[in-house]
Amino acid sequence: MTQRIRFIWMFALLALFAYINKIEFIIFCFHRTEKEQKELFEEGKTKCDGVKKKSRHQNWRAIDLVVIEDGKCIWHGTSKYELLGRFWKLLGGTWGHDWYKNKETDFDDIYHFEV
User: Fold this and answer.
1) pTM, two decimal places
2) Which backbone phi and psi does 67 adopt, to 5 degrees?
3) Three-state SS string across 64-85, please?
4) What are phi and psi of 11, to 5 degrees?
5) Which domains, from first to last, does the chain contain?
6) Residue 101: Cβ within 10 Å count
């Protein structure tokens, strides 16, 4: 199985898990072009410049999602993000929040799920 197909399969399981646990979310970033990635790098929002170091978003193996509560986007950490992140890691994925907890980055990327 290719990494991209594995990612899509894992994301389908995450979506099902969210549904069962009554967690609503929307996807706000799946794929990024080299130009989009470079712009985010220049803004200091990522460690990947899009050229020398590519993001998983550039090869369709990462997704950013935001939890929805009462029809509003929740842009801060909640137990719902923690639940989704733990489940994603059980599937074998990487959750962006762990980079922050481990001090690999100075921003908390709770929205990021990748393979």
Assistant:
1) 0.88
2) -75, 140
3) EEEEEECCEEECCCCHHHHHHH
4) -65, -35
5) 3-114 (3.30.1380.10)
6) 10
